[in-house]
Amino acid sequence: MNRALTLLRRRLIGSIFVLLIVVVGTFLLLEAAPGDAVDAYIVSTGGDAGMIELLRHRWGLDQSELTRLANYLWALLHLDLGQSVTFSRPIRDVILERLPNTLLLMVSATALSFGLGSALGIYAGARPGSFRDRFLSIGSLALYAVPGFWLGLVLSVVFAVDLRWLPIGGIETLASDKTGLDRAADIAIHLVLPVSALGFIYLALYLRMMRAGMAEVWRQDFVLAARAKGLSRRRIVLAHVARNALLPLVTMLGLQSAQMLGGSVVIESVFSVPGLGRLAQEAVASRDTPLLLGIILTSAVLVIVINLLVDIAYAFLDPRVGASEARA
Amino acid sequence: MSDFTISRRTMLAGSAMLLASTAMPISGWAQTPKKGGRLVLAADSEPRNLNPAIVASNGVFFISSKIVETLAEASFDGKDGLAPRLALSWEGSADGLSATFKLRDGVKWHDGKPFTSADVAFSALQIWKPLQNLGRTVFKDLASVDTPDDLTAVFKFAKPTPFQLIRNALPALSSVVPKHIYEIGKIEDNPANNAPIGTGPFKFGEYKAGQYYRLTKNTDYWGKDEPYLDEIIYQVLPDRTSAASALEAGEIQLAAFSAVPLADLDRISKVPGLKVISKGYEGLTYQLVVEINHRRKELADVKVRQAIAHAIDKDFVVKTVFLGYAAAATGPVPKNDPQFYTADVPTYAFDVAKANALLDEAGYKKGADGNRFSLKLLPAPYFNETKQFGDYLRQALAAIGIDAELVNNDLAAHIKAVYTDHAFDLAVGPPVFRGDPAISTTILVQSGIPDGVPFSNQGGYKNDALDALIAKASETLDTTARTDLYKEFQKEVAADLPLINVAEWSFISVARDTVGNIANNPRWAVSNWADTYLES
Q1: Suppose B525 and one of A239, A273, B44, B256 were both cysteines; which one would form an S-S bond, judging by CB atoms 3.0 to 4.6 Å apart?
Q2: Is B93 buried (19+), middle (13-18) or exposed (0-12) by CB count in 10 A?
Q3: Mutation target vs A (from B46, B239, B422; most A CBs, 10 A cutoff)
């Protein structure tokens, strides 16, 4: 446990710097984009010079960039994410409303891709060079080559439009007033298509990594030793080969969490899931700087936490890693 | 399918558009409306402020017009093209200094309080005039509103104001909100801006950001037996392909405002149980316009502008970019406008040879590479069609030796580049014609507008004769004389080409056959839907 705590402390200190860089970088990037929130807003309304000036003043856009950045950082120090221009609501509320949907989507998709991917990888890697190995390798490669939005569209056309087995989009039935288990089941059904679309792409990655890792381990001396001991093939595959091949996958899990957040932008749009990805896209289009900063900050924290968990898991899976980290 | 081809042809016929489409049969028209049911439809955006008295825009009206009503609504057959809503009659004085509205009796706000002339006076003076995007222009000379009794509101103007303009502005600019809710606190921060309270057939139910808006039936509505629907659900579907699939899957029953892209209409129209309707948007005409930066010396020459006009094949644009769902334009007033349009203006037939000759005459000879000069072309990104026309225009200009560099921006960047920074030579824009040239059309060519005002003359164009004409029309009280001045205005714009009007288009609705009373007024998608119903 001591090992984990040391790791945690070191990571937290590093994270603060990462977050600061993320916030300032995003702010500057968005400031560099031409047009501000008022420009984006008046597209749908028009308006005279007086009205535009009034809006800029009300939304605080008549202040200098530096003042706004300083104000933002000062508020952030007090854990205040500020007010969204587009939603005219506190950003914390807007994000908290969407965060569970994105988390649900990400966690389910990760579970699907990691779980099924590594299982199939073990299945394929258990008999290198066999038919099932070749079939799964080629199949997963094909899946990996498919763009996420295309897979999403095809799934929705087949299962929602033509067969009508599954709902076409959204996170739950609209205004259905369902509660408790009914609601959970309703959400689960709505998640099937987006989770499949998001998960299947990464599934290929885990499958191939698992398989490649196993191919590597098969050649190790301890596998030969295990065989010589007369262990069953099943036990060799699961306890010796697969367990050792699993380590790089865990690292990948951490790295993928950031990519999944990116992939969810597309999937959330295709399946109209009200999540953070779609919100970020809207925030950029409407030049809602504080909202985008809030989303990026939330995502950054999310990625940092996931990677921290991965590191802790790693330390337990492979004692050598944690020991050297703790000493350093 | 037959509805579809008929409507396509009538659109091509252009001037016959309004008449022919009015006669177009709509399935379910003769049936008696049924009560009850939930209408689910696609919404492509979530407006930040739902108060139509402050934000007079189609995105807001689409939802709010069912909750908050105006004094009058547009109508196909009513007098002056209007049907009464909160006002029963309206009359302007001969001196243009006052306008009298007789209001409907027995109308209640959604919270049960009675609607009176005080609400109209408050909305006009405290909101339309100082805060509303369009009202700030139209009601700028409104000095006071007298309320001799609860059902009479008399608008008093400081300067003579043409009643024709006020009348034409009623459908879009006259949303009435309750005084007793808005007189407390700052109007812009009032919570009712996000949960409107009105007199309309539907009450605001709930809003789940990113998911839906729910409107529920107002059982106390003044319209007899209305509304028919129990609920309206706006499902937020920002992705355009998802609206089409949601219709096919039967998850939504209606997609208005061309939520289904034109390219999909052909396929969708063949799906059993779905109908494609191009009617019901006659009062919401968008204009495809080439905006010109007159600060460029080449473009300041009228011969060059005429050459560009001759280089554009408007029929090709209508057929290819709009797939027939548009009409070729002749000038700044669309053909389907019943009051102001005149065809008697200089026209520019598609003629590349003539365009080349005009450019030679202007002194811009082709160089060794076949180019006369280069310029920057910025197509507005709001519609697929404006972007596609940008691609077409680039090719059309290449044919006359003008090398156009396409610059594609997103919404905010485009608005800033064109209307604030003037960093363009040509731009493609979609201004809206709002039933009267004085509302949002004359500012497209008028001089003296400050930088940064969107959808206005930011091209540095100045024509004293045209400015004088616009000023005169704005204070001409007689309807016929005023209309004639705007006909003169169209001629002058078409002759001098401060901008080039290419086409006029509107939107398409796709609905299930079970949705009844669709498209029965010229602003249907943004009207109150009290008579819309669902067959079981």
Answers
A1: B256
A2: middle
A3: B239
